[in-house]
Write a sequence for this structure.
């Protein structure tokens, strides 16, 4: 009989963790580089830099439309951690551009029409910001 060999410690992440990390990284890219969500959803300091620790926590918008627009949103909500939204509702919002009440988001929020994979990635990233 041979002596039992110790089981080596696992040094890699399970496949599900790697997949989730990739999805979150894709969502971060979409939020930061493509959607540039921080511009409207993150407070800025006097130098125009994002305030540390307030990433995607919402703010009062500094700009207004040239022509009066009755549905214009003067503030943006906090989207870090998706407070008040569940994952599937968020995914549907980014795929259809419609809020749970069936209405489009108030301007200046774009009416996104993402594919499911991108919408899932954005939702995963936003949820990761709790």
């Amino acid at each position: 009989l041979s002596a039992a060999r110790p089981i080596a410690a696992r040094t890699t992440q399970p496949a599900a963790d790697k997949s989730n990390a990739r999805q979150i990284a894709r969502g971060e890219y979409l939020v930061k580089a493509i959607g540039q969500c921080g511009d409207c959803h993150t407070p800025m300091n006097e130098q125009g830099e994002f305030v540390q620790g307030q990433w995607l926590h919402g703010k009062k918008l500094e700009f207004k439309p040239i022509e009066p627009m009755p549905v214009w949103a003067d503030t943006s909500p906090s989207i870090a951690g998706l407070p008040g939204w569940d994952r599937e509702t968020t995914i549907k919002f980014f795929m259809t551009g419609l809020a749970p009440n069936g209405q489009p988001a108030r301007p200046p929020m774009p009416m996104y029409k993402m594919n499911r994979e991108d919408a899932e990635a954005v939702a995963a990233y936003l949820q990761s910001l709790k």
